[in-house]
Amino acid sequence: MNVILDNSIFQSNPIHSLSLFEIFALGWDERHAILTNPPFDPAAEQPVNTWLTTLTDGLRKEAVQVLDQSIPLTLRRPRTTSRIRVVTAQSDWATATINIRDAVRLMRTPLKLLLENSRNDFNFLLRLASPTDRQDLKDAIKKGWIETEQAGGLGEMKNILLDLHTAPNAEISALIHKLRLWVMFDRDSEQADRSKPSKASEEVLGLCSEIANQKPWPLQFCQLGRRSIENYIPIEALRYWQNEASGSTHTERRRKVEALASLSKKNPQARWQYNMKSGLLGDLRKEQVKEIEQQGRSLRDTDLDPLFTGLTEQERTSLAEGFGKDIASLYLHHISSWETSFDLEYQQGPAHQPARPALLFSLFSRM
Known about the structure:
Strand order of the largest sheet: 2-1-3-4
Distance between the termini: 6 Å
Number of helices: 17
Order of helices and strands: EHHEHHEEHEHHEHHEHEHHHHHHH
Helix content: 40-55%
Structural class: alpha/beta
Shape: elongated
């Protein structure tokens, strides 16, 4: 966050010394850029310089270092980085003009990444990042600048966002929560038409869009272009999973991976919306599954959503059951082909999903 200190901060009587020191402390390790208006000039007659003369040598040296490092820091950060102006007057959140105590509270609050599953989704997010951004993201987590917040599914995510959206304007904690929030969620799929997002995902998207229109800066969020994070696992990574097994299990996994690779070539959209955890059977109603089991037969084209028609009998059999509920744990593994294969997989679409750099850009500009 870029924090601009108004001249009045250094001229108030009394000066809020502890809060002012905390603002500088929060800029010491470049978590935030601490700026003045006009820009800090140690040789000029400025209120900030008058204040600096009241400090001990050690404190003055550290405060000047924070001010000196902040201008180049802002130049390295996205132009859309969140910005506040700190004043002595009452806070006006709509214009990001905030009094010193509210500013400290906002600055010390970590950026929350609201995810459906904090572990798997975060590791997917790391894969989305370039090697440099990935390390920056890991460092920010270690330093406590960023925290993951698990929603536990789209339904609970909707409840969290709805509570924030409907909170009274005077409720500062909810307001700060919204300002220190970044959201990512699955597209999922609608049972009646697997080519469309689920109703729950669209409701979360609608809430995010409404919150995004609120001042002083928009909520940054991402609805995945594919059904879930599992649908972005490259075939090469699934071959790694396949080769972890032996015997009949290896054979079964190999056929499953080959069937998915074939589906990717025949109909990429079907591959994007395939139920990676539970397979084709996982998308059928319980009555349908029971009927198929009672008849002792394999899946037919007519059993499936039109998106998945055209598979061979062997492919339907191999994809009837998915890759298991823990397949997303592959994102934890260091697989040598990840950088290239994941990038190629993501670039295949769909076209409306955000570019990987833009996605991480939106996150870091929020920090």
